[in-house]
Predict the structure.
Amino acid sequence: MSRSLKKGPWIDSKLLKKVAKLKVGDMTVIKTWSRSSEISPEMVGFVFGVHNGKNFIEVRVNEDMVGHRLGEFSPTRKFTRHGGKIQRELEQKTQEPSTPAAK
């Protein structure tokens, strides 16, 4: 659920200070742990390193991202794959035709 309009968007004050110090187009990465901060128009053109719990994922902010949260662009879970016996059989079938052609 979104924040009330009368309260306005929530942006971490430390993050706004970091953005104000840099010039537009500067490619230095602004590291932040504030995943719940909303992207404002002042942030467009900067690169943020958003922490996902393990490391920082670089997010280049463009105009389409305004109004979204920084955490939306830094996934916290890593999808490996769906596994099981059927999946292994399918992978073996796709690998078999390529080996006889190589011979």
Observations:
- The radius of gyration is 21 Å.
- The chain has one domain: 13-102.
- The chain has three helices and three strands.
